[in-house]
């Protein structure tokens, strides 16, 4: 026995001394498994390595090592894994997951107890690097613990980034607008449209919680050692359908680097009282600071002192030219098929171009791929339905939404003779198909059509349509690179049918069509840099106007303005650069190139003289697709966010933009009688530069959001017109158009309350918008060449949107709007010349129409909250314009028996009650 013990001791000593930590190791590994690499190190070093097989059954290693120590070899092999190692003194190495094994506890780890009392004195321990958990650290055992990242022995960093995606467990679809919070802290974020989130969290142990409407709440215990990812798959929670939540995008307004960005969730605006009970996301957008309309019932939006044609309105990536029904009284965007809308009115990402003022990026909902679902609404003049139909379970589905009005039937049943022969109808249809091939490839395609027909007078019938199509293919190339290919086509058609008692009946209209291809890429270079880059090309085809006789007896002669064609191309790149924990930059550049193309005749006028038929000297003819004129230039996009406090940030931005397509109108609103014009030899592209600076603050765990932002914008080549200009069906439109300078500035205030029984927002804008038309010739000068208020200049704009939840089922809502009256030009006298009497007008836009204000109220009734029932209902009882305010839409003048008389026109001068029934299944 003694001999055996002696031999064992000698063998042990030999084994220990045979292990030499400084022994050099050389390895050539080519796509070797992690386990193979560890065993080869074990063989060469003589050390015994202990590990769990399930930790090393993934991953491959390719590297070359020459004469390195055991420690160096292990560090290289385990570099891109969550594994660490600890070397024992007996020639053994233990492989650990995530954490590091330490030889001793830090001083102060155990609390000191005073022997004369029960008071415990605790010493604060650096809980970041290394990470220790004291003996009094207790936790709930029913919460899953997740280990994130690999503990860094070098130490030095205290804050790490946790990111990932959240998807529906059953359908596999990404879950957007899901709140992800760290319990006991003010750390939180929200998932974007692709379900992606990112959080900055101190190293250590934390409880991560999810909160959303319609999905289960999940809790995870994090053991955070380093940067890492955590993907979540959540089940739907139908018990939450009765909740009314306005908690959207917590912290996003403070955290992101995009200044002047607004996000609207369509579902959350259903309580806001609007005209005839229609849920209208575009009208809700107009209640936000910096966004206004020219008047009640007006189509088009003025954003930060810009014209209505300076907004890029996208529906699933395709341009929609007229997002309004019946001259703007109703929106052409179906709320039941729409998901979210993001408005960029300050910093415009480099991906977007072609407009000066803003981008309205509207995305429709993806169809439910698990089960059949739908939503129906019935109102006093419209009906709306949307159906979601699975095609391939958990892979593809189709959503079909349609809306129509039965106002024609109402008009014909009225006793008023002047209205019996009137017509007012509209409809729109959206069809979207989404297909997910696998976790990396998905395709979405959308088709949309809207049609309006109305005739308020007995002799004219107006008709216009929007038609668009988009196809988007998304591909995740790898963990760092994703790409998206977008093909789209949009068209807008307008016609007037004039039928009178005389032989001058006609049909007249115009057309615009554009086709675009975009390739957008994203590269996640590192935690500090995220690159977006891409290329796009767009082909415009514009038919400016035509007229044809209506009927065989009409004396009207056919006439057509030659077609215009233009090609707009662009390339862009931007970088979201996280300089440090406080400073975040988003810097990019977009270079756009435009070419005006033939086939067309280009007239040449005498140089130095005003453009008119009298100064026409020559005509140049360009063949099909021949380049007539080119314009190009860089567009700088920059925005920055700096944390003053954890919940207070300052943002600054600068944008430069180009616009190559223009709307021509001598009206104050975008009516369908407008026409479109492409840049050419005489009409240069519009250009603008905008600067903005703002403060963003959240209070009481994001229950309150406060923002204060100011901006200053200068613009060039803004289109206007000469006095008495004839714009429609004018073959020489360049002789009537003026281009001048613009200047606008303003201050925007927004206070939101996102939670609680009382929620909503208060918005206020002070803004000014001026134009200067100062040419070389007298007819090109307006108001003596000085700056004057634009048609849409409204200094004061106040909006209050409030919802009060009495119970889970019953709530009240209110909407109040006040705006300064817009500018107008008044006649100030008359004079006689050569026996003729003429009216003398004031300087352009010298006066203003009366101020506008309106109060709307509604009572909302949710259906009962039983889970097992066919449909969930919702009633909306509202009164539009409760005060019966006769708000003037416009002021016009007529001459009656030699006397000039002023008249005001209004759209809704009395209270308009409405009851609407919705149900969702």
Give the tally of β-strands: 59
Number of domains: 3
Under CATH, the topology of the largest domain is which? Maltoporin, Chain A
Q: Give the overall form.
A: globular
Mean pLDDT: 81
The proportion of strand residues reads over 45%
Quaternary structure type: single chain
Query: What name goes with the CATH superfamily of the largest domain?
Result: TonB-dependent receptor, beta-barrel domain
**CATH class label of the largest domain:** Mainly Beta
Main location: membrane
Protein name: TonB-dependent Receptor Plug Domain
Family: Belongs to the TonB-dependent receptor family.
Subcellular location: Cell outer membrane
Account of the 3D structure:
The protein is built from seven helices and 59 strands. The protein is mainly beta and 921 residues long. It has three domains: 2-97, Phage tail protein beta-alpha-beta fold (3-Layer(bab) Sandwich); 112-243, Carboxypeptidase-like, regulatory domain (Immunoglobulin-like, Sandwich), CATH 2.60.40; 261-920, TonB-dependent receptor, beta-barrel domain (Maltoporin, Chain A). A hairpin with a 4-residue loop joins strand 46 and strand 47. Helix 2 (34-45) packs antiparallel against helix 3. The protein starts with a helix and ends with a strand. Belongs to the TonB-dependent receptor family. It is a multi-pass membrane protein.
Notable traits:
921 residues; globular; five-stranded mixed β-sheet; mainly beta; 22-stranded antiparallel beta barrel; 3 domains; Phage tail protein beta-alpha-beta fold; Maltoporin, Chain A; single chain; disordered N terminus; Immunoglobulin-like
């Amino acid at each position: 026995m003694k001999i055996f013990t002696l031999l064992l001791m000698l063998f042990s000593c030999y084994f220990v001394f045979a292990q030499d930590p400084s022994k050099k190791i050389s390895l050539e590994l080519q796509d070797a498994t992690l386990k193979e690499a560890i065993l080869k190190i074990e063989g060469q070093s003589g050390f015994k390595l202990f590990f769990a097989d399930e930790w090393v059954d993934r991953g491959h290693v390719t590297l070359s090592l020459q004469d390195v120590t055991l420690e160096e070899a292990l560090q290289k092999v385990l570099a891109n894994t969550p594994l660490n190692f600890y070397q024992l003194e007996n020639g053994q190495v233990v492989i650990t997951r995530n954490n590091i094994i330490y030889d001793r506890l830090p001083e102060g780890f155990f609390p000191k107890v005073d022997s004369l009392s029960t008071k415990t004195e605790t010493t604060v321990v650096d809980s970041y690097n290394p990470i220790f958990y004291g003996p009094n650290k207790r936790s709930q055992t029913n919460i899953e613990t997740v280990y994130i990242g690999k503990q860094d022995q070098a130490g030095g960093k205290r804050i790490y980034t946790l990111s990932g995606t959240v998807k529906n467990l059953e359908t596999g679809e990404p879950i957007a607008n899901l709140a992800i919070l760290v319990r006991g802290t003010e750390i939180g974020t929200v998932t974007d449209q692709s379900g992606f989130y990112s959080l900055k969290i101190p190293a250590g142990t934390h409880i991560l919680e999810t909160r959303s409407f319609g999905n289960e709440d999940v809790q995870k215990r994090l053991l955070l050692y380093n940067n890492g990812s955590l993907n979540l798959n959540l089940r739907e929670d139908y018990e939450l359908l009765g909740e009314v939540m306005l908690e959207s995008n917590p912290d996003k307004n403070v955290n992101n680097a995009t200044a002047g960005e607004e996000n609207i969730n369509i579902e959350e605006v259903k309580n806001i009282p609007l005209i005839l009970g229609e849920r209208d996301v575009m009208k809700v957008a107009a209640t936000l600071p910096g966004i206004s309309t020219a008047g009640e019932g007006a189509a088009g939006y003025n954003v930060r002192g810009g014209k209505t044609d300076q907004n890029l309105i996208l529906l699933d990536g395709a341009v929609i030219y007229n997002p309004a029904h019946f001259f703007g009284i109703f929106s052409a965007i179906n709320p039941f098929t729409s998901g979210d809308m993001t408005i960029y009115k300050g910093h415009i990402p480099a991906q977007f171009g072609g407009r000066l003022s803003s981008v309205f990026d509207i995305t429709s909902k993806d169809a439910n791929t698990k089960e059949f679902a739908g939503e129906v609404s019935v109102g006093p003049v419209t009906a709306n339905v949307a159906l979601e139909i699975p095609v391939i379970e958990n892979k593809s589905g189709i959503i079909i939404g349609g809306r129509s009005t039965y106002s024609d039937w109402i008009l014909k049943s009225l006793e008023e003779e002047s209205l019996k022969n009137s017509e007012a109808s509209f409809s729109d249809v959206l069809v979207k198909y989404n297909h997910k091939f696998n976790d990396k490839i998905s395709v979405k395609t959308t088709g949309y059509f809207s049609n309006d027909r109305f005739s308020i007078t007995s002799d004219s019938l107006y008709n216009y349509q929007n038609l668009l199509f988009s196809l988007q293919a998304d591909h995740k190339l790898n963990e760092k690179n994703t790409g998206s290919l977008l093909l789209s086509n949009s068209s807008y058609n307008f016609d007037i049918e004039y039928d009178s008692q005389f032989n001058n009946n006609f049909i007249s209209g115009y057309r615009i069509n554009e086709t675009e291809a975009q390739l957008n890429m994203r590269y996640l270079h590192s935690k500090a840099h995220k690159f977006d880059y891409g290329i796009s090309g767009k082909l415009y085809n514009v038919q400016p106007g035509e007229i044809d006789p209506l009927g065989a007896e009409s004396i009207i002669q056919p006439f057509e303005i030659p077609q215009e064609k233009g090609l707009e191309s662009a390339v862009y790149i931007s970088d979201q650069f996280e300089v440090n924990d406080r400073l975040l930059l988003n810097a990019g550049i977009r270079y756009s190139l435009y070419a005006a193309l033939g086939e067309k005749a280009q007239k040449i006028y005498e140089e130095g003289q005003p453009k008119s038929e009298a100064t026409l000297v020559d005509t140049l003819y360009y063949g099909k697709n021949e380049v007539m004129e080119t314009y190009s230039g860089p567009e700088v996009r920059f925005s920055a966010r700096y944390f003053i406090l954890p919940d207070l940030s300052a943002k600054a931005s600068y944008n430069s933009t180009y616009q190559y397509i223009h709307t021509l109108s001598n009206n104050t609103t975008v009516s369908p009688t407008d026409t479109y014009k492409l840049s050419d030899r005489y009409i240069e592209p519009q250009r603008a530069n905008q600067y903005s600076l703002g403060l963003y603050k959240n209070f009481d765990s994001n229950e309150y959001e406060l923002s204060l932002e100011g901006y200053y914008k200068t613009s060039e080549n803004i289109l206007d017109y000469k006095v008495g200009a004839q714009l429609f069906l004018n073959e020489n439109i360049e002789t009537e158009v003026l281009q001048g300078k613009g200047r606008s500035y303003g201050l925007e205030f927004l206070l939101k309350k996102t939670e609680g029984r009382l929620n909503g927002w208060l918005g206020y804008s002070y803004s000014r918008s001026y134009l200067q038309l100062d040419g070389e010739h007298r007819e090109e000068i307006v108001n003596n060449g000085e700056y004057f208020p634009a048609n849409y200049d409204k200094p004061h704009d106040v909006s209050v949107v409030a919802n009060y939840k009495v119970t889970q089922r019953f709530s009240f809502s209110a909407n109040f709007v006040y705006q300064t009256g817009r500018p107008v030009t008044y006649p100030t006298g008359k004079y006689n010349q050569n026996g003729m009497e003429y009216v003398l007008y004031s300087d352009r836009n010298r006066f203003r129409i009366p101020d506008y204000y309106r109060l709307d109220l509604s009572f909302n009734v949710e259906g009962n909250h039983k889970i097992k029932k066919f449909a969930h209902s919702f009633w909306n009882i509202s009164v539009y314009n409760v005060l019966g305010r006769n708000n003037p839409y416009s002021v016009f003048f007529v001459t009656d028996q030699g006397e000039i008389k002023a008249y005001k026109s209004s759209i809704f001068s009395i209270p308009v009650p409405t009851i609407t029934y919705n149900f969702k299944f």
